[in-house]
Amino acid sequence: MKMNVFILFAFLSLGYKGMNQNLVFNPSFEDTVSCSVWNNSWPKLPCVGWYQSINSPDYFSYVYTNGCGSVPLPSTLLGFQYPHSGFAYAGFATSLFPNLINSKELVTGKLVDSLKSQHKYFVQLFLSSCNNCHISIDKIGAFFSIDSINPDSNYLFNLNPQIENNSGNILSDTMNWMEVSGFFIANGGEQFITLGCFRPDSSLKFDSIQSWLEPSAYYLLDDVSVIDCTATSLNELPELQINPWYNAIDKAIKINTTENNLSFTLINAMGKVVMQDNLVQNEISAAALSRGVYMLVVEDKRYRRRVFKVGVY
Questions:
Q1: d(CA 165, CA 179)
Q2: Measuring CA to CA, which residue among 218, 221, 292 is closest to residue 60?
Q3: What's the pLDDT tens digit per position in 167-217?
Q4: Residues near 158 by Cβ (< 8 Å), separated by ≥ 6?
Q5: Which end of the chain has less Cβ packing within 10 Å, N or C?
Q6: What's the angle, vertex CA 304, arms to CA 161 and CA 129, rounded to 5?
Q7: pTM of the full predicted structure?
């Protein structure tokens, strides 16, 4: 299993840091530390490069489930969810019900390099609302700072996140991963990214879910990226237009697209890369694959990437 984890992390590292694009060190929370090194060392999370900046956000993983601050996947007390990619993700609470007392959890990571003054950056993260939560909210975002933030929940309401989900657009999807993204111009010197809700409950829009076990708004977090558009000339590239599906008759994963020069990686539910190659004739043979759910990562020569879940049966 350790070898599978290494292969997957090496792939993720090549897709991000190897291209000098993503400034987030451990974007999908895959790279972990050993139990003896972590040793409940608050505020560090069991994944490299991330820590609990306010209260106690959580870490979820398929393979790191020996009790060292990790919750086993995919089924938890919060519900059921596969990672957006790889085998792990983080999670944080934003509000408690019925007493909305501004209880927030925030997770912070240090960037690979500090941001450059007047450079334009693209920020992207993926969220999923927990199945068993009673409420969902609208405003979740990313705040960039020169220093790590003060671990005081009242302090955070004075912060103005550079990237934030649109007001009124309640993040309520429990089945799929929801994208929160945007562009901003850096002041320069920012080297920390903090993720969560920066607004008091009085300024949030809420949606109530009838069947619930967890009296809070809680979100799963995966695949965080910060890209310097000024340096890479990637200003607002259109998203890859790709639609994959499994054809049981042909035993193949078909990909409907007009895009060219695509490559793909197929990852099984245990985090193992089972296939990786250039996409030929918009089709991937699934004859040798076992039944199950796979993560399909498709990328082009301009480093645009899409991640899908594909069922093989």
A1: 9
A2: 221
A3: 899 999 998 999 999 999 999 999 999 999 999 888 899 888 766 666 788
A4: none
A5: C
A6: 50
A7: 0.69
